[in-house]
Amino acid sequence: MKYIALCFLTCTFVSLNAQQFIEVFPHILDDSGVATSQAMGLSDIDLDGDIDILVTGNRFGAPYEFDEIAKLYLNDGDGNFTIKTNNSIGPVRNSAVSFSDVDNDGDEDVLVLGINTLGNSTTDLYLNNGTGVFLRQFPSTFLPVDDGVIAFSDIDGDGDEDVLITAYLSTELYENDGDGVFTRIENSNLLGVSDSDAAFSDIDGDNDMDFLLHGRLPGFGNITIFYENDGLGNYKENIDTQLVHGNYGSVAFADIDQDGDDDLLITSNLDNSTFISYLYINDGQGNFTKHQELEGLRTGTTSFADVDNDNDLDLFMCGSGHMSSKETHFYLNDGDGNFIENTESNFEGFSGASLGFVDVDNDQDLDLLLNSYSQDFYVLRLFKNNLTTTSVEATINNSNYLDIISNPISRDMMRIRFNSNRNALHKFLIYDEQGQLALQSSQNMQVGENQKEIDISMLSNGIYFIQLEEKGNSISQKFVISR
Fold it and tell me: The pTM is what?
């Protein structure tokens, strides 16, 4: 297998209070200023314990007008990436990609939609053989679309990942049989929208996955609508009049105030001159109240992540502002869900981006991968997080540890062993590889060595981080679920 090495030669520093984000050069993808990358997916495709990258899109400018791409980059574990040359994923533009273990074999597969090299819309599923080699499933059971959104979730509670796909005036749900064979759900009666975004969350706390749909209706109307799940994957509309309606936006769920339910961020274009970014607080039953107004963006991309390791979710936003300006905003969370923009950060303005926070170099902090439009072309950039923190020994003390028994984990119960220095309430927080809180629980523990079992049956295969907290102190470990 032949690879082309990408060497990191120089760095630029972007400050963020007590930490630095280091922009690494040369960029991962920068084809002499003509790279137009429109979608990015992150996954450990070869199961070596680090995050790899898939980029799709096209290059612009003669002679590249419709030169579609699909490029895989493998991580060496230290955040250095090499391009995988024997890649079987078909190149597409106007694209979306999403990874998920659809056949429950312990590795992540990928669903790709867009316009292929023949100029046709396509939606293709590629199954991973566990080493990062992907096989396209033919014939495709998905409607061929482009300019869409892909969101995976177990909508019917049967233990496998189903999928929602939105495209131009089309919103479709597909049910997974557990082996990666998908069937379109007929008569779902979902609204078709364009210029859209969608995201799953258990918004009302009834232990099933609802979803939010945001975009443009046929004609000139806009909509933001909840679809509530009955637990079996059947959805009914719930139009929340408290939420802003718009298009060319983004939606993201996160528990910003640490009360155990998912809150909501919407960025949107209201009337081609009014751009907004609103944070809404969830009362735990799916009722949302506007909490804070942030800098307004259209075609915005957002990500919640604990970038400073203070146990709350911060926020990175980029997109188009007024007068088509490219903007980037970094907000720090005060722990109660109030966001303060960090004016010391000097990220340049980005728009049309896809991004993700992941620990690319396994140093226990979240780095930033940003595939964005800047200076008239698209570039895939890596910003390494050089967070300065006290050591675990200094934070808790030399006698504390956290051990995950049998990691990777192949069961529905996770066993951990740890030492506590006092009788106290301990919190157990599990984050996915994007920095989103996936599970949490708490329990009073006794001083000395303890063991605990945590039910992780609702988590799909992948990379996670467990964080143990007590009285402001914390320790974390990385683990892998591979059933």
Answer: 0.80
